[in-house]
Design brief:
This protein is an all-alpha fold. It contains 14 helices and no strands.
Length: 324
């Protein structure tokens, strides 16, 4: 799977080198983060918690687009604490390691900028460039010209306000446009990434299989291979027919909570780091703006995952386990 995924990745991106600026370093950072996470899953020690926190802190210093990873990882560790799969000391060390790794840069940037800075000095500009009237039609980067006197942020009563006040007032004024803005951002960021959409479709199929299997076992019934293949074929056809990122994400976010409830925990075969990385970029896209360059850095993971899922889904449909 890895060799095939690597070949597909090189074929797709060797002509896009001019678009990959800091992205190769981010890819390497995320690969290291995934490997350290696997090590922590196996050992669960203070040392691996420290290492995971340091690597995640370094990821933040490489690129601010990973800003939502710490709260996502923290939330997952809290879940592991609740389910008694993690120790309080490990979580504490993990959080402290992130803070200590990022703190020197934050202090330096704060001193130079003369105002509190955590990671980036461009956050205010970027937020305004991705949340304005232009996003009613396109969810990508759309900076507001200072010469446009009709722009919301250039109005006399608005332009001198703080960033938070500007954004709040903008969405209060255009609250009815929020679904349109989110839709446009997701389309701009993810619509052209075929392997991510394919992975989501395959995850949906796995979730459906697990949910159906659960209820069939509850009723002491078995699904014959003919019906299993028919259901699988119909799901694939519907998925291909509605192969739009917003539809796929909507179905996914409906099915996963249902599966989590009926299985009383996480039951998917998709590795947790992949989920957290993907959620980071979904949130980033919705909060800031949609740009495929944000997501290029995890495309290899999803090429690899889609290949693995295609094989495991077919084997499961045939009635075999993936290991077999």
């Amino acid at each position: 799977s890895g060799i095939l995924a690597g070949a597909l990745f090189i074929h797709k991106y060797h002509k896009l080198a001019y678009e990959l600026l800091t992205e190769p370093l981010i890819m390497f950072s995320l690969l290291m983060l995934t490997l350290v996470y696997i090590l922590h899953e196996k050992r669960g020690s203070i040392i691996t918690s420290l290492l995971l926190g340091v690597v995640l802190g370094l990821c933040l210093l490489v690129k601010g687009s990973l800003i939502f990873l710490p709260p996502l990882f923290f939330g997952y560790f809290i879940y592991r604490l609740i389910t008694k799969k993690e120790k309080v000391a490990n979580v504490a060390v993990f959080v402290i390691a992130i803070a200590v790794t990022v703190l020197p840069w934050s202090l330096y940037a704060t001193q130079k900028a003369g105002k509190p800075i955590i990671l980036s000095t461009q956050g205010n500009v970027v937020m305004l460039d991705g949340n304005n009237e232009a996003t009613f039609n396109h969810g990508g980067w759309r900076p507001v010209s200072p010469d446009n006197t009709y722009a919301f942020y250039n109005q006399a009563e608005i332009k001198d306000l703080s960033l938070k006040s500007k954004l709040i007032l903008f969405y209060v004024r255009y609250y009815d446009k929020i679904p349109v803005i989110i839709y446009n951002k997701l389309v701009a960021g993810f619509e052209g990434l075929i392997y991510i959409k394919l992975t989501i479709l395959l995850v949906i199929l796995e979730a459906l299989q697990l949910i159906i299997k659960y209820f069939m076992e509850k009723s002491d019934k078995r699904i014959s291979p003919v019906w299993r293949w028919l259901a699988f074929g119909c799901a694939v056809l519907l998925g291909v027919a509605f192969f739009k990122i917003v539809i796929l994400l909507s179905v996914l976010f409906i099915l996963l909570p249902i599966l989590f409830i009926v299985k009383r925990g996480y039951a998917m075969s998709l590795p947790i780091p992949f989920i957290l990385l993907f959620l980071n970029f979904v949130i980033l896209t919705i909060v800031v703006f949609g740009d495929p360059r944000f997501v290029y850095v995890i495309d290899f993971l999803f090429i690899l995952t889609s290949i693995r899922y295609m094989w495991s889904t077919v084997m499961t449909t045939l009635g075999y386990s993936y290991a077999e």
